[in-house]
Amino acid sequence: MHIRETVREDLPAVADIHVKAWRKEARHLFSADTMASWTVEDRLRKWEKNFAGATSGGTKMYTAEQDGKVVGFGLGGTMRDAKLRIRYTGEVYALFIHPDYQERGAGTKLLEEIMGHLQEIGHKRAALWVPSSFSSASYFQKHAQGPLMEDETTIKGTTLKEEAYGWDKIIVQPKQEKTYM
Questions:
Q1: In the chain, N or C: fewer CB atoms in 10 Å?
Q2: β-pair partners for 164
């Protein structure tokens, strides 16, 4: 597994992962018509339009690769939520893994990379929001504090309950130096 900063050429794979992971998590929450409206082409247009802004001002985006194939992505920066910002200054904005590669460590490695970035830019604590009905919520229940707060968001007319999870101390293992003989 290789983690690196995302480049514009990764966006088709990012859009594909975003749609496939979202469809898997949300399939029981939305109608078939709504699910069909989430297309890779639409998501790619949005990523291409917003990529420069999404990767500036202290925000970084990372890509997970396995055997040369992009299998996941994550994005993190400064906390956007005013209520959480009182305690948690860093935020994980997105963490998506292709359904065929979930539960193989890509998400954990991406999260570690995002946390390392947050630590480098001065954040000591971080949090994220996740819909409580998504299977990924159980991961954060095990690996973070929370739920810290609950809120609701409406997507395409459907209201989802969201939970915030946080880390009171960002701890990142030092990266291992490669030794060549």
A1: C
A2: 129, 149
Secondary structure of the chain in the HEC alphabet? Answer: CEEEECCHHHHHHHHHHHHHHHHHHHCCCCCHHHHHHCCHHHHHHHHHHHHHHHCCCCCEEEEEEECCEEEEEEEEEECCCHHHHCCCCEEEEEEEECHHHCCCCHHHHHHHHHHHHHHHCCCCCEEEEEECCCCHHHHHHHHCEEEEEEEEEEECCEEEEEEEEEECCCCCCCCCCCCCC
Residue with tokens 């459907």: 158
- 14-23, 53-62, 88-97: which has the minimum mean pLDDT? 53-62
Percent of the chain whose pLDDT exceeds 70: 94
Q: Return the closest-CA partner of residue 146 out of 93, 75, 84.
A: 84
State how far the Cα of 28 lies from the Cα of 30, in Å rounded to an integer: 6
Given a cut of 70, whether residue 179 has pLDDT beyond it is no
Are 166 and 146 contacting, i.e. CB atoms less than 8 angstroms apart?
Answer: yes
Q: How far is CA 166 from the centre of its chain?
A: 14
Q: Show the tokens assigned to 51.
A: 């990529």
Share of the chain above pLDDT 90, in %: 73
94 closest CA partner among 169, 174, 22: 22
